[in-house]
Amino acid sequence: MPAPSVPRGGRAFVLAAALAFSLTGPVPSATAGALRPVAVTTQTGEPAAASATVTLVTGDTVTVTTAPDGRTSFAAEPAPGTEASFHTESTPSGDTYVIPDSAGEGLAEGRLDRELFNVTRLVADGRDDAGGDTLPLIVDYAGSAVARSTLTARAAAAPGVERHSVLPSLGATAVAVDKGELSDFYRDVLDGPKAVIHPDRKVHATLDVSVPLIGAPEVWKSGYRGDGVKVAVLDTGIDLNHPDLAGRVADSKSFVPGQTVQDGRGHGTHVAGIVAGSGKASGGRYKGVAPGAELLVGKVLDNRGSGDESTVIAGMEWAAAQGADIISMSLGADTEETTDPISEAVDALTDSSGALFVISAGNTGPGRTTVTSPGIAGKALTVGATDDQDRLADFSSRGPTIGGALKPEITAPGVNIVSARAAGTQLGPVVDTDYTAISGTSMAAPHVSGAAALLVQQHPGWGPQRLKDALVSSAKTGADNEVYEQGAGRLAVDRASAVPLTATGIADFGDLREAREPRSKDIVYTNDADHDVTLALGLKLDRGGEVPDGATALSAASVTVPAHGTSSITLTIDPARTGTGRFDGYLTATGDGVTRTTAVGWTEQPERRTVKFTLTGRDGHAAGQTNLQILDLTTGDATLKSVTLMDENTWQTVLPEGHYALQSLITTYDGRRRVIALDHFAEPEFVVDGDRSVAIDARKAQPLTARIDGENRPVERAAISTVARRTLDDGASAAIGTSHVTGDSTTQYGAIESRTTAERGTFHFTVEHRLRDPLFRGTWTGAGRTTTLDLLTPDLGRRLDGTRKLAAVDVGAGTGDGYEGRDLTGKLAVVRTDNGWLVPAIATAAEHGAAAVLVVPASDGAALVQDDGRGALPAVGVSYAQGTKLLAALADGPVTVTLAGRSDSRFTYTLPFHATGALSARATVSARPGRFARLVNTFYADGDARIADDVLTTWHDWERTAFRSGARHLAPGTRTDYVYAADSSYAQTVRTSDLSDAALDEYPKEFRAGRSTGRDWGRAPQHPTLPRRISCPLCRADTGASFLLAPYGDSDPGHYGTGVSSTTYTYRRDGQELPAAQLFAPQEAEYRIDQTVRRRTTALETLGTRTDTSYTFRSKAPGAGDTATGCTEVFGAGHPCAVLPVIFIDYDLALDGANSAPAGRVLPVRIGTHRTDGYRGAAVTGVRVEASYDDGVTWSTATEPHVRRDGTATTVLHRAPADAEAVTLRVTAWDRAGNRTRQTIVRAFALRG
After folding, report:
1. Which residues contact 153 (CB under 8 A, 6 or more apart)?
2. How many Cα atoms occupy the beta-carbon half-sphere of 1144 within 13 Å?
3. Fewest C-beta in 10 Å: which of 368, 664, 1141, 1216?
4. How much is the pTM?
5. How far apart are CA 55 and CA 182, in angstroms?
6. Among the three residues 977, 999, 1017, which one is the final residue of a domain in this structure?
7. Which domain does 1136 fall in, by range?
8. Cis peptide bond upstream of 26, omega within 30
9. How many other C-beta atoms lie within 10 A of the C-beta of residue 1148?
10. In total, how many domains does the chain have?
11. CATH assignment at residue 294
């Protein structure tokens, strides 16, 4: 009978808050010599989530699994009712994009932001499904003038929109779309008025020495303290009760739903204190730059320090409307774009309001091209960070921008800045009740905002560009830094204020690669003094590449600027003389006791050449979809250009002369846009030394196939994963690939032989074939002849367990008319349809009494069959060619179809193919069974049988990222997986139910050929576990402590789980409850950490719903000679470190596949205990086991067990009452040193009658 089945039910913007602070570090004592708690940041809670599922804008889902060593795998699944296929791309920055085939047209037309598919960023920013039921997006109507009412109406009418707001500065709407309706929303927007969909990116938040350093006290002496100037701080809010900020807030507003403007993070308060803090709580020591300024506080980031891009834009619009003179934004996001919605809003609001936007550059240095958004906005004043010795901070982001612009323009102090601390927050090393020290460009930007406020008071008529020029041109130039690192230098507001003379701050010539003639820029000097000023000019371009003589020219050697007037000179660059490279330096103007500096920069690439691509699919026509990567191998910056083309036969681009790598994935469609073939192309070393032509012809592709020599059982390919990866010598890489379930379609896969071989760096092409025991086999018999059918099987569908011989009946398109006058009882309905979604056809066939369904394509082309598993009948498909022959025979007489099915595959093979240097002509791989390791996987389930899924990920020695397809399995059940043993490690992820996000993972491991390993997945009880292979998960140093636990695992200590609904902790020292940050004291004490884990409960997940664990242990500060494995990775070198003596409990119970034991019998229970690696203390000496049969109301104690030397103990539970449904366990383990763990697992396992 059929086996049971259960179905599956904008760039996330890291405005990567310019925040760089130590997770650990001591705080000065209030009383010298006093024995007091070490004030440290204690890492507690769970390690980074092992698995996360992301719903894309198209409605498709991607599951991301990250191993403790950082290796990551991706598995994609189409939205219900769709026929999506996927490809993946990875970039030199480490981000991975998973792009559905259906998004190709929107990407090619520029209507979909590519960052919508940046799965790495979506997960990092909490846009995965565990982060919420909606996906925030921005719909931009291409800059057209759209009335507010129209924007509101469009948003309200779109499918799935639960919340929306209008962003008039962009002509856009911000929407939150129900993830269950994303596919409808996506199609509705793309079918409507021209619009671009962006991710509503997730945003995160990024004095006593620093304020004098920039010269603020000198300006105060002149009477300028920022009085009457409005400075908007858009951040996490403000502590309205802080003594330094009392009376400074002119207006405030929270843009975070459900939260007031009160700062629960501490970042916004710290920033506001730098701008305008009075220093009252410190007797004036920690006074801000402009203590007389009025603050407009917009809370755009929540109390965790994150928010949405649209929220930030709304705050910007509000600040401008309130009349802000300066808008300070200490936030930023990694960007691969030359512009984006928030940067566009900065420029638009600068023009419309006259406010100066001061924005942090970001904390992603020291690499080039790391300035974050919105710091890339052209009209923003973008700020890097220096220390108190004017050295550029290592974390400070550097330019140029992706578009080649000169950023940042200025730097300011941003290392160990002491400023206001919001009450109850622990951000940064805490100085005292009112102050904390933080580092980051977040701290540098408000120094500049405060300085700008001083100048606004002094010169109320100056606009944003004049303010920007005044601050930049008066900066103190750092001797050791390039212009693209520091702009004009470190802020010196005393210089800007002392003499009312300004110069153009930045002379940015951009990229001169296309310039054929000399380029000129006017440098303008403005003098507000009552007398003329004569300035001697000096141009020194020595910070970047060497500039030849004659390549630059000044129109004059000096300039006289009249009183209350302007003068200008012209700086000319002749690109024909400069050669290629990045060039920068300074134009200084000196005279009358004043110096003004203009930062000068430009880049010039080699001669540009035209490269023309000819794109041909397997059918000889224009390629249906071409995804092309062009990686620059010459500059050393790993510049990547990614392009998506639809139905293009030719495409051309212009590239500077040099060496490149070309990688492409070519899709050939049939007339119904169904995938005929997916083929790889690569030229790992492509030289552009003139105009070039490249022919990408999928007709030359060699098929990617696999076989197991000596395996006599029938096998079929169940899935394939491919990836081409080009890696530079410095480790930066780009990759493109695809991953598909193959049993449900006729799609072919191939690779085109390369003509070049990688010379700089490496090229790897890897194919992962997963073969299986066929789920269905079939033949048809008619007119005395039997023909084999190559059956297509829906990945998620009703299974057949056994063999059936069925009379075939042609029912046409499978609608009601096709069944008229036909008896389908117990027969096979043969349906002719091009609709690969079989749900309607199965339902209709079942209504008419059919036993199964066979689908034949109605027209020639690719075949695809998909099901949701809800139907009552098994269904399979065949190709158009085979189906046409069967139908022809059926028209001439009776046909019998024999279907042999299995409820689940008994075995699989995972076999890799690998080519290095280039794509080879040989694309077939084979191996004998003796080259494989044998993994016997047993899948447990809570109660009823169900279809679940798993992903077996292979990592080869050269891989850090893998893209794999999942497999379905029946649980409870057993399957043997044969994995190729050479040069590979494996890790499996198992979801015990398709209705749950809960998953079990394991750490990557290697297996030996010929060896057999048994593995249990989901065997009860579910309970917290100690993560293996994580550095120092339970240890303490002199500067901090680490207490990291996986919220649950199963009976295998090597498995760890994710997908719980909540995990909470409380902390006690010697019986007193304390915050985590104040837990540890130097002297020996008894500590107790209580952990409560609540798992999501579904109809198919009913056990282990809650665990309560108390970890009691004794500890003191480690001594000078103490050390533990992994401590250096967590706390840095030079710190004494010791393992915490925490006891963990493991379980080994005799349960059946449904995680149940027989009621009315004694049950043996084996308990194991273990500690973290490196523990050398007392052994466990006692274990007590208690059981409850009424969910913890009453308890009985098991026979006292003997504890063996290895920490294990065995006992038996007494007979349970006949009506008991489940057993709740309470286990206590202890040693003689006072360490003890007690763990209660509610409904640990089930009982059966």
Report:
1. none
2. 24
3. 368
4. 0.78
5. 8
6. 1017
7. 1023-1248
8. no
9. 16
10. 7
11. 3.40.50.200
Question: Under a CB-based contact definition with an 8 Å cutoff, are residues 1050 and 1057 in contact?
Answer: yes
* CA distance linking residue 409 with residue 504, whole number of Å: 11
Q: What is the CATH number of the domain that holds 847?
A: 3.50.30.30
Q: What is the side-by-side strand order in the sheet with 249-254?
A: 249-254, 294-299, 230-235, 326-329, 356-360, 381-386, 410-413
Give the Cα separation of 944 and 1249 in Å (integer).
Answer: 15
Q: Looking at 741, 770, 799, which one is the last position of a domain?
A: 770
Beta bridge partners of 519: 573
What CA–CA distance (Å, rounded) separates 448 from 326? Answer: 10
Tokens 């339902």 -> residue:
843
Quote the pLDDT of residue 388: 86
Identify whether residues 1031 and 992 lie together within a single domain: no
**H or E element that contains 1244:** strand 1236-1248
CA distance 610 to 625: 22
Please tell me the least confidently modeled range out of 435-439, 851-855, 1237-1241.
435-439
Distance CA 1198, CA 1200 (A): 6
Q: Is the pLDDT confidence value at 670 over 80? A: yes
Q: Which two tokens mark 893?
A: 């007489």
Residue 496 lies in a domain: no
Are 124 and 12 spatial neighbours (Cβ–Cβ below 8 Å)?
Answer: yes
Q: How far is CA 1095 from the centre of its chain?
A: 24
Residues that are catalytic = 235, 267, 442
- Kindly give, in sequence order, each residue whose CB lies less than 8 Å from that of residue 35, ignoring residues fewer than 6 positions away: 1081, 1082, 1083
- Looking at the fold, whether 1181 and 1210 belong to one and the same domain comes out as yes
Helix boundaries (H) for 1055-1190 = 1127-1131
Same domain, 859 and 988: no
294 and 185 fall within a common domain: no
Give the Å distances, CA to CA, from 31 to 28, 36, 352.
9, 9, 54
The verdict on residue 1008 lying in a domain is yes
The CA–CA distances, whole Å, from 71 to 520, 851, 1058 equal 50, 46, 17
Which of 462, 420, 457 minimizes the C-alpha distance to 437?
420
The two structure tokens encoding residue 174: 């911000």
Which pLDDT score, from 0 to 100, does residue 898 have?
97
Quickly state the pLDDT bin for 97 (edges 50, 70, 90): very high
Expressed in angstroms, the distance from the first to the final Cα of the chain is 25
Residue 628 pairs in a beta bridge with 643, 664
Instruction: Please report, for the domain that includes residue 582, its CATH number.
Output: 2.60.40
Domain match, 302 and 436 both: yes
DSSP state of 1201: P
Instruction: State the pLDDT at residue 6.
Output: 26
CA atoms within 13 A on the CB side of 814: 28
The radius of gyration of the chain's CA atoms, rounded to the nearest angstrom, is 34
Residue 504 has pLDDT above 90, yes or no: yes
CA angle (874, 877, 881) in 5-degree steps = 160
- The reported pLDDT for the residue numbered 1249 is 76
pLDDT in tens, 950-991: 888 888 877 777 777 778 888 999 999 999 998 888 888 888
- Report whether the peptide linkage leading into residue 562 is cis, meaning its omega lies within 30 degrees of zero: no
757 and 838, same domain (yes or no): no
Segment 612-649, tens digit of pLDDT: 999 999 999 999 999 999 998 886 555 678 899 999 99
Same domain, 742 and 784: no
Is 476 within the bounds of a domain? Answer: no
pLDDT given for residue 223 in this prediction? 95
238, two tokens: 């403000």
pLDDT tens by residue, 697-717: 999 999 999 999 999 999 999
Mean pLDDT of the chain: 87
Q: What residue ranges in 362-500 does DSSP mark as E strands?
A: 381-386, 410-413, 417-420, 435-438
Phi and psi angles of residue 176, each rounded to the nearest 5 degrees, phi first? -115, 115
Instruction: DSSP letter for 752, please.
Output: P
Residues 758 and 789 in one domain: no
Please say whether the beta carbons of 237 and 268 come within 8 A: yes
What are the backbone dihedrals phi and psi of residue 449, each rounded to the nearest 5 degrees, phi first?
Answer: -60, -45
